[in-house]
Amino acid sequence: MKNPAVLFVCLGNICRSPLAEAAFRTEAAALGLTVQVDSAGVGGWHAGEPPDRRAQAVARRHGVDISAYRARQVCEEDFYRFTHVIALDHENLAALRDLRPEDATAEISLLLDHVKGREGQAVADPWYGSQSGFEVTWSDVTAGAKALALELVETP
Question: What global pTM score does this model have?
Answer without folding.
Answer: 0.96
